[in-house]
């Protein structure tokens, strides 16, 4: 029953998001005109998918995925709460995108996301387990992409990622967090985030 209630709640939230006046076709088209796409260098934004975030209730961890079965498993079986949509990413390689790797440190339950295979290798040497490619994102700010900020709390062994600069700055101001720059560039969730 727990899985059913989550899936129903998730489906209802997704439907409300899709039907929201702020997410109308005209507002999405207006957002696209602000961030024009060059077909020679950019991935097709219609191929992008939501990148969901879940937060652990039992330990400091944020888990990001574009795969709904992983969302369901994290919420139903692993003690995570659904946190919403963090960004839009690509599940397969698109023009000008690079792999966005995921690694996990099981003792601390920290998920690390990076565009650097070398950083994953270093993390693996330090006890992380490589989980492969989580998504594909842009390595620089092109194609209407926005920064995906990365911060780290060494006391809690926790990484956090957001497209929201105010959210990043709030955490940095709360103590214990260090700015690790920009993990890469993703597509904004657009007017649906407002």
From TrEMBL:
Keywords: Signal
DUF5648 domain mapped to chain residues: 55-187
Signal peptide positions (record): 1-25
Pfam families xrefs: DUF5648
Designated name of the protein: DUF5648 domain-containing protein
Species annotation: Mycena metata
């Amino acid at each position: 029953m727990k899985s059913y209630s989550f899936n129903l709640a998730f489906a209802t939230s997704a439907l409300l998001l899709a039907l929201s006046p702020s997410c109308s076709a005209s507002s999405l088209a207006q957002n696209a005109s602000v961030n024009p796409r060059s077909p020679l260098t950019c991935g097709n934004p219609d191929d992008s998918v939501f990148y969901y975030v879940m937060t652990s209730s039992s330990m400091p961890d944020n888990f990001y995925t574009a795969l709904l079965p992983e969302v369901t498993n994290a919420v139903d079986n692993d003690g995570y709460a659904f946190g919403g949509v963090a960004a839009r990413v690509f599940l397969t390689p698109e023009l000008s995108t690079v792999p966005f790797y995921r690694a996990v440190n099981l003792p601390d339950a920290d998920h690390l996301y990076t565009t650097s295979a070398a950083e994953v290798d270093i993390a693996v040497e330090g006890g992380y387990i490589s989980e492969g490619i989580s998504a594909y994102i842009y390595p620089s700010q092109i194609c209407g992409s926005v920064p995906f900020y990365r911060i780290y709390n060494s006391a809690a062994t926790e990484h956090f990622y957001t497209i929201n600069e105010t959210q990043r700055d709030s955490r940095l101001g709360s103590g214990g967090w260090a700015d690790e720059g920009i993990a890469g560039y993703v597509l904004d969730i657009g007017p649906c985030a407002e």
